[in-house]
């Protein structure tokens, strides 16, 4: 449980850095760090399906933010300034947060069970009674569409909405 609190602290710190930093690309990276911390928290609470959706949405968001930032900003204010406090502080913060994120990620991945070993008791019910109760020919399809239908609908809605948002923004940029 302590690791969840530590991840929340790291997530809040990355969110503060994303708000306060002046470099837009670094802010996009900090936002990505917040999203990936949420994904690790989903893994720790045994919700890998939510973690997968969070990772997909976060990767799309960070890539889109980086593309928009690189396309719209033309002047780099950090070139030719040398080493000063305004440049060193964000680099030190990102280094500390990056190392902390890697440590927490390794800690979270260490606690995962070996591949193929069951971690939930519900899976035994699905395997024993799934084909009989649903009448489906495929047990995986029965679990996804019958037992976890609303969850699957929610995940598909999140992915569809994120794709629509990206397409709407790209279409508006293409019109100009």
How would you describe the overall organization of this protein?
The chain is mostly helical and 176 residues long. The chain folds into 2 domains: 1-112, no CATH class; 116-176, no CATH class. 80% of the residues lie in helices and 0% in strands. It has 7 helices and no strands. It has helices spanning 2-20, 24-44, 48-72, 85-110, 122-134, 139-147, 149-175. Helix 1 (2-20) runs antiparallel to helix 4 (85-110). The radius of gyration is 21 Å and the shape is flat. 10% of the residues are buried.
Shape: flat
Domain count: the total is 2
How much strand? under 5%
- Unreliable runs, pLDDT <50, ≥5 residues? none
Q: What is the tally of beta strands? A: 0
User: What integer value in Å does the Rg equal?
Assistant: 21 Å
Helix content range: over 70%
Largest sheet: none
- Element order: H for helix, E for strand: HHHHHHH
What's the tally of helices? 7
Task: Summarize the entry for a quick read.
With 176 residues, the chain is an all-alpha fold. The chain is built from seven helices and no strands.
Please write out the topology:
Layout: H1 2-20, H2 24-44, H3 48-72, H4 85-110, H5 122-134, H6 139-147, H7 149-175
What tags apply to this protein structure?
single chain, 176 residues, mainly alpha, 2 domains, flat
